[in-house]
## 1
Amino acid sequence: MYWKKCPASTFIRRRRRSISSSTRASAWSWWDHVRPASKDPIVGVTEAFLADPNPKRINLGVGAYRDDEGKPVVLQCVRDAEAKIAGSEFLESISAAISSKLVEESLKLVYGKDSNVITDGRFAGIQALSGTGACRLFAEFQKRFYPESQIYLPDPTWSNHHNIWRDAHVPRRTFRYYNPSTKGLNFAALMDDVKNAPDSSFFLLHPCAHNPTGVDPTKEQWREISHQFKVKNHFPFFDMAYQGFASGDFDIDAKAIRIFLEDGHLIGCAQSFAKNMGLYGHRVGCLSVLCSDHKQAVGVKSQLQQIARAMYGSPPVHGLLLVSTILSDSDIKSLWLREMKAMANRIKSNRSALRDSLENLGSPLNWEHITNQVGMFCFSGLTPDQVNQLARKFHIYMTQDGRISMAGVTSGNVSYLANAINQVTNYSQENLNLCNTSF
Ligand SMILES: Cc1ncc(COP(=O)(O)O)c(C=O)c1O
């Protein structure tokens, strides 16, 4: 690191020398020590896909919804909300009333529309810059009020969780989550890690449609996790980026959080409307913290507002108006719930279609996990070598960990995809057999 090798005094001396020995101020270069940051794995996949001119190319990297032609979708509920807010005076910052409406309606999605915790004044909630911004705000808040704390993240998790807590200077630990041999949950290991973490630790949990594995605990397992959190006094922070995508039903997808609520936990929750409203570009989300009483909630909210103010001022208004209109107009909201169900159903049928196609091709491998896993992603079990072969030979792109974004599968490409997966896995299987028989 340049800064480490070059203490500030040397740096300033060199700079003075450089400026005085040069007639041109521009001779001093401020940014020589800045090296390119490592590429985000998902951005890299999209770039490779876009650079490939082959008409058969498939992008299975992006975690956003696509229609059966592989195109981004603008939901009808969003178009209706656009029409309703057309002409709104949203050039000035938004009134506190509209912002609180968004928070209140977001909380109803998570805790249930009739939940009395929403009206009893114990929530500190603010609008956030989508799910990423909500997580980052919480990470900053955690650092400010528990400076010695760390965060436990599932292994694996959305890669940006690591970046977010790293940049907030909160040390990261992981807890075991996924079992590659069953392609399901490693529940015993998860519980061990929860038990063995120091008392009163912060844990990040995906309440539904876990990214990248598509593996969620069952209701019973959530009950046990919640119980153990109580015993250890851990703090649950839920990152809810895909509500609706696991089951097609918002209440079912919120079951984990509601179990924790019933058990009397205080809860943090990040919500995103990027995927379930298809509003990726608008960056609308919500961060909420359930507190012990109203006084605490007032303190927490004011601190969250202060952190946000120093980071980005206030969030954009247009997306806020769209989301609060969808959530508070009963006709538009029921349209949204129907459209959400249709998106979830299309993904489910893609799972069945991919699994059926692989089985019909006579693949000797077990593909049950494709339909057992839920939500946007399938953690296929493909190795990095097989992923590379898919890109090189078949123009099919996904992240190196073998994560398939199921929304990228269409009725037009599923046979081609299954055939390609069958070929790269059979080839690896044959190689394995050859290796085994040569002994
Ligand atoms: C688990 C998880 N959390 C949060 C996010 C952030 O979503 P956004 O900031 O786009 O709302 C994502 C996006 O991929 C995610 O997968």
## 2
Amino acid sequence: MVRATARFRHHDEVHFIDAGDGVTITLIRVRTDTEPTKGPILLLHGVAMRAESFRPPLARTLVDVLLDDGWDVWMLNWRGSTDLDPRPWTLDDVALNDIPAAVRHVLAQTGASSLGAVAHCQGSTALSMAAVSGLVPEVEVIVSNGVSLHPVMPPFARVKLHTLRPLMQRTQSYVDVPWRDGPEGALARVTRNAVRVWHAECTNASCNMASFALGSGHPALWRHANLDAATHDWVATEFGRVPMSFYAQLAASDRAGQLVSLRPKGGLPPRFAAVAPQTHARFALFAGAQNRAFLPDSQRKTHAYLERHQPGRHSLTVLRGYGHADVFLGARAHIDVYPRILAELNA
Ligand SMILES: [Zn+2]
């Protein structure tokens, strides 16, 4: 009898690793009673999220689906994870240190020579940066959701990024989604209250603050219609801080029309899509048609860049009815999305 995997059958194995610059990050290997029959898959969470974000309170999560398909699942907490001590970080740090260290660790532990990756939001951008820079040649397939090398944002999100950010960063090191709980400091309190008034679409203060922190929409990071009540409640405690150091890189990248390195070093180019990709990884790009954090044009532009250099190798899937994080958190994602991800990993 084939048993469908569910959360209570997961056995977590936590690995602490040095990212190479003195920062400790963690990997969670998710095991079940059956041994994997396929290779390792690395999961990379989005900004202000954590590895655990891939296990929302749904009957079937992406992790369950991957385990049932035989994959060896490793969830990374890169340095922006809300499970780690808060620190300022840039995508350069993650691409240069966290991702190569995680890939090497997984290969050393499993004896595999290559792996696949499923990445969301800034986990995707950092992984794409590391891949096209030639830092992780062992990654064979990259499933990337939302944005990869070309952040294209809604107009109001750009206004916040270029106008509000310079004001806020004078007194704040972070935009903190947990400001919902009553922040310290006048500016944070005014911001929180203004956000709650502006986002009258629901009374979940985290949902409101997440919409303020990234993108532009009511809400910005998902379509309410796609989240069940339990998952919408769960997001209230899932989101954390977004450091101003990240916003600075996003602003510079927005101006350049592609991801840029803040301090090119260690093999990172100044502009990531200005050079040919130094990887043989196949990219499977996913975009919610109604993504209000990064517009679907983000993935279209990266797809065009990849196809220009490696015609016919990569794919682009635009998911109708989906936004940004609901691609993984949606109540129907196990029907609408996960089978497409599996198909890309098994291709
Ligand atoms: Zn909401």
## 3
Amino acid sequence: MTLRHHRVYVLVCVALVFAAVFAVPVTFLQVRPAPAAPVAAGASLPTLVAAAATPAGAATPAGPQAWTEADLDAVGEDEGPEAPAPAAPAMTLADACRRLPGYGTIFVEPQPGDEGIQVFEGTFGRRTFFEVVRSHTRDLDAVAAIAEAVRRTQLFDFRRIRPDDRYRLFCAADGTVRMFEYSRSETEMYHVVRAGEASFVAHQVEVPVEDRVTRVAGRVEGALARSFVAAGLDASIMPLVTDIFSYSINFSRDVRRGDRFRVAVEERWVGGRFHHYTRILAFEYVGQLIGSVQAYAFEIEGKTRFFAADGSSVQRVFLAAPCRYEAISSRFDPNRMHPVLHVRKPHEGIDLVAPTGTPVYAIADGVLAFHGEKGPNGELVVVQHPGDMMSYYAHLSAYAPNLRDGMPIRRGQLLGYVGNTGRSTGPHLHFGIKLRGEFVDPETYLRSQRARPVPPAQMEAFRARVAELKAELARVPLPDGPAAAAPPPAPEVGYAPPADGGN
Ligand SMILES: [Zn+2]
């Protein structure tokens, strides 16, 4: 649950309590004269939650500020002090448990004296249990009684509270502690509930954890992340989507208003509330620039990967090689003797032998960082890629037309032509990859990054799974498309890697 979610829930709580209180203001407000507890914007969470249970604190711009004590008294007289108990009384302990985040289906039976429950919550920080209780109420008798109930059950140990552990303290209108809640994690939660004048009972709360599949369709209106949220998804879906398509969809360039998407995603619900997305199961994007792109999750060797319906990987990241070549004349070697200089000089890339004029392609999407003459490199192209990676293409004879430093580059885009410029003994492409500031062996690196299709032995299982996932997606129809027919997606550019992967 994100902080943002949390805030939303708190605000919803404020609104709910507010509605409940002002729908039936009489009995409650007479019982509890309103202390001044304004809710400031940006107030800390405990303050807001406490205010949520305190009607006087539910001061929103509309309505309550216009009420005066006299107004309240007058309303009370209209209804009479003997008015029957309203259907929705002021927040009871049971109400509080249902309305606050993190409770889910937990239900506490209403008890006399529950009305006007205030909830204080927070993390322990460096405080002891005693200090926490003392900061919210003067009912210090409860401390010993709660400690005794916990000791009896040995459910947990107050001496082992960690600073990030959370608590909620439920106090009745007179300040007596009705319940203490202690959470060591989202799923490990304890309640210590008042059971009598001076006794409490402790129990561990069963927090239900459930995985659900949600299907959502939507249309792009502005930023993609915002469009996901507008369609009803949590913003935390975005990194999952970009992770799948990091190299097949460029989300800053290929996305257009009016594009459509649908997704089937697995969610983890904790305590009856959304907690996080476990994984995307199927995703379809219909773009005006990129056509229809689909990705289906399929597990191979225990790892979830994403494939198009035909079993090819949508996570294909790099070309297997930047050009067709006849041989590798010199490999990556941090200790090489230089063939021209005859000194020990690391070879920070690979030399691909190819005739002058052979086209050279960008191995991955990125931005053109540099092109020009650069000493021993001769005519050089440098592309900056996501993930702090650079690729280098040296000794070129010529550049692709219209290259401009800073321009976006697509995987497979023509950069230039093999040549023999700079410190070079024959036509070849010197190709290098720098990862986080260090040159790495391009052969090893490209091989490790190559996304494989579904293995033939698993194709049958994959097809069956895709049929299921297509049925999941089909349950949410895509919104209508834009009036103008979208152009077909651009064909795969240029270089087709050899079957063995090239290098
Ligand atoms: Zn070289």
## 4
Amino acid sequence: MQKTLIWDIPTRLFHWLIVASLLAQYATVEWLENKVQWHFYIGYFTLFLIVFRIIWGFVGTQHAKFSSFITGPRTVFNYIKTLFNRQSEPAIGHNPLGGWFVVVMLVLLTIQAVSGLFMTDDIFLDGPYRQLAGEETLALMNTLHHLAFDVLLYVIALHIGAVIFYSVYKKQKLVPAMVHGNKESATAGITDSRILRAFVVALIAAAAVYMAIEVYPPAPQADEYYY
Ligand code: HEM
Ligand code: HEM
């Protein structure tokens, strides 16, 4: 068995920045006073991270690609049968069950960030898409923004629980691998992190988010006053 690179730097950075962003998103509405403007900025950054990760899922390195960890139901089912087997061969990238879990997390994060664009703090600040939507859509987005976070909390708890299960029960060091990128494996991993490509993808993701929040939505209308 040799140490080999599995998780490229962009995927690892994405992961830990998403963790930090979610903590900050929670803090800016629940713990800190009058930090909703920061909640917006960090929300846009989270949106950027998600757009980046989705594109990276198509053009990134081998184990970051969706095609490498989105598998059919039979593969997932066969994997589940080996779940409690301590001797089962560790997955090189995401395992078939974990792969679907990643998809669920990305979908929830997308719902959370997009629904945020329609939110208001009911005092000064309106999300950039608030003017675009009717009452019903706004109510739906409000519900989604609250609900998706509650669901996310359970999903994150399960995610961390699963990581602990693999570390303690299966003795697989998944967390260090998400930090330094390497795993012990008989099969060769990736040769490099494709940083230049990641940089181009990051520029595209940033441009897409900028267009979506600054260029596309109509300028906020001035309130109408009646004298
Ligand atoms: C806000 C909380 C968290 C969120 C939203 C989150 C989300 C994710 C996502 C989306 C992935 C897939 C990475 C990718 O392919 O791009 C992932 C993988 C991973 N996360 Fe987290 N994560 C969170 C917290 C944590 C924490 C606290 C730990 C460490 C204890 C952790 C450890 C890992 C590990 C080890 C993997 C790789 C799993 C594997 O080997 O298949 N995560 N996480
Ligand atoms: C993934 C990113 C995001 C996360 C994790 C997140 C999380 C949250 C949470 C936990 C709450 C509190 C909900 C409650 O009270 O039950 C909240 C409220 C809110 N969010 Fe987000 N949010 C995100 C993105 C955004 C974005 C992009 C915007 C706007 C551009 C936004 C605007 C708001 C507003 C206006 C509120 C209500 C604040 C208040 O009650 O004063 N959020 N968000």
